[in-house]
Specification:
The chain is of the alpha+beta class. Among the domains are: 105 residues; 53 residues, MazG-like (Helix Hairpins); 40 residues, no CATH class; 54 residues, no CATH class. Helices cover 62% and strands 7% of the residues. The protein is built from 15 helices and 5 strands. A 5-stranded mixed beta sheet has the order 1-2-5-3-4, covered by helices on one side. Helix 10 packs antiparallel against helix 11. Pfam families: MazG (PF03819). This is Nucleoside triphosphate pyrophosphohydrolase. It is an enzyme of class 3 (hydrolase).
């Protein structure tokens, strides 16, 4: 559906902003080329996404330039035009709408909180939304997954919008880069390469990645993983990478021996008369790294294993609280529920252990 808007109409920028966020149809902005195109571009930048598709049209609707994006449009290098056609394909209308909403939030007339954000200030939200998305996926709730993916997508759009404002890159650049990367790394799908099996597929993938960064050594990659990934994930990735370089125990007994060695060194540091927290932390890290390697040997993910243990422990403890509450139901008065564990307080270790064993039966 094509909509029209006359740029000589009072308040037309407000109507344009409304079009950008409604997500319906394409728009013909009439007679907008009769003024200063640089000023027109500034108005568009306050309400439209930087990747908005533009086509410059003459009076008779012949194409003068385009289609091009708002980000790439240089008013000084295009010829005289009368109208502007803003296209929104049906398949991308809601992405365009989201990008336009974020652009308006960041505009001078937008939201003070959004205006104040920087790439650095938004990084905690990226992590938070990523973890909440993973939690929704693990819970298997499609509605929650869609909602959390939307929150995560917002962080991508916000980062892209800020970078577009700084003349660095925009959302289209981000999408184009990952699209190109996927095609480049899948020559067996988008090219003529033949892949015999999964091991060959993995080798091909790594070879292609190496050609993308030919000067990066394995050590530099390991340092990147250590600096950028969550600790247990980084440990697993590092241990897998060095195995590919031949840095591996001949059998699993070597890993068990390493675990015993690291356990003894940790105990020694913890029992020193004059404790050194830095050395204690280092030895604890060494032991954890050895355990991650043991999991890798048996194709177990330590991060996933610890997540499941945390959930199992929390569920059992919640069950303990419920069991203790049920035991206290027949008492004369209930302790106040102030967010603590009133029904567990004052119990002996033996009583708590009995509740724990009952909880384990219900949550094995």
């Amino acid at each position: 559906m094509l909509q029209t808007l006359d740029s000589l109409q009072p308040g037309w920028p407000k109507h344009l902003a409304q079009w950008c966020i409604t997500g319906r149809g394409s728009l013909l902005l009439k007679r907008c080329g009769e003024g200063d195109p640089a000023e027109l571009r500034e108005v568009l930048q306050t309400v439209c996404a930087s990747g908005q598709s533009l086509t410059l049209l003459a009076e008779d609707l012949e194409v003068v330039a385009g289609p091009l994006t708002l980000q790439s449009w240089d008013p000084q290098s295009t010829g005289h035009f009368t109208h502007l056609y803003l296209e929104r394909s049906a398949s991308a209308q809601h992405m365009s709408r989201l990008a336009a909403i974020v652009a308006q939030l960041r505009a001078p007339t937008g939201c003070p909180w959004d205006q104040a954000q920087t790439p650095e200030s938004l990084t905690p939200y990226i992590l938070e939304e990523a973890y909440e998305t993973v939690a929704a996926i693990r819970a298997g709730d499609p509605a929650a997954i869609a909602d959390e993916l939307g929150d995560l997508l917002l962080q991508v759009v916000l980062q892209s919008q800020i970078s577009a404002e700084q003349g660095q890159f925009d959302l289209e650049t981000v999408a184009a880069a990952i699209a190109d990367k996927l095609i480049r790394r899948h020559p067996h799908v988008f090219g003529e390469a033949a892949i015999a099996d999964l091991p060959e597929l993995h080798r091909t993938w790594e070879d292609i990645k190496q050609t993308e960064q030919p000067d990066q050594t394995l050590g530099q990659k390991l340092l990147h993983y250590a600096q950028s990934l969550p600790p247990l994930m980084a440990a697993l990735k590092i241990s897998r990478k060095v195995v590919g370089a031949g840095f591996e125990w001949p059998d699993v007994e070597g890993i068990w021996a390493k675990i015993r060695e690291e356990e003894a060194e940790l105990r020694q540091e913890l029992e020193r008369a004059t404790p050194d927290p830095a050395r204690q932390s280092a030895e604890l890290g060494d032991l954890l790294f050895a355990l991650v390697n043991l999991g890798r040997w048996y194709e177990l993910d330590a991060a996933q294993a610890l997540t499941e243990t945390n959930l199992r422990f929390a569920r059992r403890f919640l069950c303990m609280e419920e069991l203790a509450r049920e035991q206290a139901e027949h008492t004369e008065s209930e302790p106040p529920n102030n967010g603590s564990t009133p029904h567990l307080k004052g119990r002996t270790l033996q009583e708590l252990e009995a509740l724990w064993q009952q909880a384990k039966q219900q949550h094995p």
